[in-house]
Amino acid sequence: MKRAQLAVLGLALAAGAGAMLLMRGDPPPPPQVQVVEAPRVATTAILVAAAPIPMGQTLSERDLRWQDWPANAVPEGLITRDDGMDLAAGAMARQGILAGEPIRPERLIRADAGGFMSAILPAGMRAVSISIDSRGSSSAGGFVLPNDRVDIIRTFRNESASQQGGGDVLVSETILRNVRILAIGKNVQVDEQGNSFVDGEHATLELTPSQAEAITLAQRTGQLSLALRSLADAAPTAVAQEEEIVEEQLGSLDIVRFGVSMPTPIR
Fold first, then answer.
1. Please, is 54 exposed, middle or buried when counting C-beta atoms within 10 Å of its C-beta (0-12, 13-18, 19+)?
2. DSSP secondary structure code for residue 248 in this structure
3. What contacts 211, CB < 8 A, 6 or more positions away?
4. Are residues 160 and 108 part of one domain?
5. CB of 61 within 8 A of CB of 88?
6. CATH number at residue 66
7. One domain for residues 52 and 67
8. How many domains is the chain partitioned into structurally?
9. Which of 12, 147, 183, 208 has fewest C-beta within 10 Å?
10. In this predicted model, what pLDDT tens digit does every residue of 118-138 receive, in sequence order?
11. Do 188 and 259 sit in the same domain of this protein?
């Protein structure tokens, strides 16, 4: 093939390739992604629980951690880094605290501020200890734990009926209803696994002053047992309705004040 023919063929091939590129067009440019930086929010470090803290536990530094919180939304009364961790470390928890829950000074008690039991008692209430059966026969099989609600049942010998019948006649009656358990034995809390047990022969109850008098007398005149209440029956409305139903069936305890006998209705 002559040189002239080769040159014409080369030009034709180059023209064809150029035409194909023109027909395909240039690829579109890649989309440009605009990165918008989020506005910076001022934060303040507040003290929170690093793990669940049961009631009565003494707090240490490993139980606590700092958590960033929006500076303009910090509730009043929380412990900030400016306050320091020493404000909580070494104190005792009045109530259970969940992991991640902010620490509040009013939910803590210092060792030099009095006893723990007096710290968890509401104003106007009294803590009274009664004897129970550690084997569970008079404490709902050992399943009564702190913060549960119970009824107190007194079992006693009916003297008049026993004399008439010629044998012992025992009677049981509910003398207190919906009473909060503060401690069983030396237990005032459950452990981190939620386990607890009856480890003593006493139950500490949260009572009003008049209830404290009634329960003290009842211990001297009979044996006391604990009847565990359902959580659904612990509401004040449920207790009020129940008391209306059984009010006519309940008796009274005679409490002597300054030498004068005063019948006390059983509730």
1. middle
2. G
3. 126, 128, 176, 179, 267
4. no
5. no
6. 3.90.1210.10
7. yes
8. 2
9. 12
10. 777 788 899 998 887 656 555
11. yes
Give 131's contacts (C-beta < 8 A, 6+ positions apart). 201, 202, 219, 224
User: What's the pLDDT tens digit per position in 145-192?
Assistant: 888 899 999 888 887 777 776 677 788 888 899 999 888 876 665 544
Dihedral class, residue 109 (left if φ above 0, else alpha if ψ from -120 to 50, else beta): beta
**End residue of a domain, out of 115, 136, 166:** 115
Last residue within a domain, chosen from 84, 100, 115: 115
CB neighbours of 135 closer than 8 A, spacing ≥ 6?
Answer: 142
Residue 243 is assigned to a structural domain of this protein: yes
Query: Is the same domain home to 129 and 259?
Result: yes
End-to-end CA distance of the chain: 125
Do the beta carbons of residue 185 and residue 134 sit within 8 Å?
yes
Q: What percent of the chain has pLDDT over 90?
A: 15
> Are 235 and 127 in the same domain?
yes
- Average confidence score pLDDT of the chain: 76
Would you report the helix, strand and coil content of the chain in percent, each value rounded to 5?
30, 30, 40
**CB distance 143 to 215 below 8 Å:** no
pLDDT tens digit string along 229-238? 888 776 665 5
Is the same domain home to 183 and 108?
no
User: Phi then psi for 74, rounded to 5 degrees?
Assistant: -80, 115
Classify residue 71: in a domain, yes or no. Answer: yes
- Domain match, 105 and 187 both: no
Q: Which domain holds residue 166?
A: 121-265
For residue 249, give both structure tokens. Answer: 């069936």
CB atoms within 10 A of CB 265: 12
Measured CA angle at 63 (ends 184, 90), to 5 deg? 75
Is 18 domain-assigned? no
